Automatic annotation (TrEMBL):
Higher taxonomy: Bacteria, Pseudomonadati, Chlorobiota, Chlorobiia, Chlorobiales
Coiled coil location: 159-193
The protein's name: Outer membrane efflux protein
Gene Ontology cellular-component annotations: cell outer membrane; efflux pump complex
InterPro entries for this protein: CyaE, OMP_efflux, TolC-like
Keywords from the UniProt entry: Cell outer membrane, Coiled coil, Membrane, Signal, Transmembrane, Transmembrane beta strand, Transport
Organism (species): Chlorobaculum parvum (strain DSM 263 / NCIMB 8327) (Chlorobium vibrioforme subsp. thiosulfatophilum)
């Protein structure tokens, strides 16, 4: 009886473990239970991508640099304690008695405060430079989030495009398979030649190879999208989106003006120029003197008349530090800072020109995509009508096998070209937004 109870207990435990395993699998990727929209994919990228998290930490580090620069406005406190043995020491003989002025064992413990009283604006410039670095880190974070958003958008729409491409290719394969079955029947009846049968088989094999290529590209894009969004490698992707988006503004002048105002690369170039100006000013101030104040309180031995007794002592003073010669280091630093400032000016000019050029290039690509959508839409309609006529004529013996196969292939190519044009339009539309300085991570369109 006990043996039967033990077997029943083991079976119960095994059943519980078996039913518990699917629950753990669901907990690994709970976000894949519902369709993933583009907004949701962008949110996951901003929250989970390592590059986005790295940019956040860099902003925190730059903010700490500002606090570090401000430390020059406050006194610096330090504590020290030490022991020193001296031998020989100063001694004198008075009336046969030896008097020792310094002990052999010397002890000293103190707290010291030092503070920069006046440095002709060095500390202020250091703080300004740190603030410029913090602003630059914030702008670099925006650029990182924008680039990650664009990469996510490209991967997202690439997956949608390739899914549709696989579907279109499968449609062509189904049509060719139907033709092959019909051709095989006619061949068996002696109404078709071996050449007709082989031609259909070759077309079917070529369509299958194209489908394999699309499926391989689809799997690669899914891997890229999972990595960007921080999803598990084995998590299924159920995307929800379409290629039906529009661009609100296509005026090159307005977009160029917006880019000069809000493009993060331009903002970063301005901050770099500001930082270079601060560095030049700071390098010029290195030739000026400093006034440093200090005060200390502690206890030490070595005081007459009892040189071994520990006594409290206080020290305070003001020191003027004047630089005289440092091996031409300060003058070289000043020349370096001046050259870096001129370099930053040229960088800003180049960035402005690049932004304006990218606006016009992206608009040209967008207009080209619009024209391709119109022409490919007409091609799909014409190819579909031609395929219908080819099927009717073939069934009535008025068209050859090659005529039918060419019509089916032309329809598939037209559908793929139309899909490609819509896909390119979406990517070009987001390129226009990026070129104009529209931060996609913050201003994502609804329903796009």
């Amino acid at each position: 009886m006990k043996h039967n109870k033990s077997i029943a207990t083991l079976l119960l435990i095994a059943a519980v473990m078996t039913t518990a395993q699917p629950l753990r699998a669901e907990e690994i990727a709970p976000a894949t239970s519902e369709p993933i929209t583009l907004d949701e994919a962008l949110r996951m990228t901003r929250e989970h991508n390592p590059r986005a998290l790295q940019a956040v930490e860099e902003v925190k580090a730059a903010d700490a640099q500002v606090t570090r620069g401000r430390s020059g406005y406050f006194p610096h406190l330090s504590a020290s304690a030490g022991y020193r043995y001296l031998d020989p020491v100063a001694e004198a003989n008075f009336g046969g008695a030896t008097i020792q002025f310094v002990p052999n064992d010397n002890y000293d413990a103190r707290v010291t405060a030092e503070m920069m009283l006046y440095d002709f604006g060095r500390t202020g410039r250091t703080v300004d430079l740190a603030k410029a670095g913090r602003n630059s880190a914030g702008i670099r974070q925006e650029i990182t989030l924008r680039d990650l958003s664009l990469a996510t958008i490209r991967a997202f729409y690439s997956v949608l495009f390739l899914q549709e491409a696989v579907s279109v290719q499968q449609k062509e394969i189904d049509a060719l398979q139907k033709n092959l079955d019909h051709m095989q029947k006619r061949y068996d009846e002696g109404a078709a030649t071996r050449f007709d049968l082989l031609t259909t088989q070759v077309r079917l094999a070529a369509a299958g190879n194209r489908k394999i290529d699309y499926e391989t590209q689809l799997h690669n894009q899914e891997i890229a999208l999972r990595r960007l969004c921080g999803l598990d490698e084995q998590a299924p992707l159920n995307l929800s989106g379409s290629f039906d988006i529009t661009v609100a503004d296509k005026d090159a002048n307005r977009l160029a003006a917006a880019a000069l105002e809000q493009r993060p690369e331009l903002m970063l170039a301005r901050e770099n120029l500001k930082a270079a100006s601060y560095k030049k000013s700071l390098a010029g101030k290195e030739f000026l003197p400093k006034i440093v104040g200090s005060a200390s309180w502690g206890t030490a031995n070595g005081y007459m008349p009892d040189i071994d007794k520990m006594r409290t002592n206080v020290a305070a003073g003001v020191e003027l530090q004047v630089p005289i010669f440092d091996g031409f280091g300060r003058s070289a630093a000043l020349r370096e800072a001046a050259a870096m400032k001129r370099s930053a000016e040229q960088q800003q000019l180049d960035t402005e020109q690049m932004a304006q050029a990218e606006i016009r290039q992206s608009l040209n690509d967008l207009k080209s995509s619009e024209q391709k959508i119109e022409t490919t839409c007409l091609q799909v309609s014409q190819a579909d009508l031609a395929a219908q006529h080819a099927r009717i004529r073939y069934d009535n013996g008025l068209a050859t096998t090659l005529d039918l196969l060419d019509a089916e292939a032309a329809l598939a190519e037209a559908e793929l070209a139309h899909l490609q044009a819509r896909y390119e339009y979406v990517l070009n539309a987001y390129d226009v937004r990026r070129a104009s300085g529209d931060l996609i991570a913050q201003k994502q369109e609804k329903g796009s």
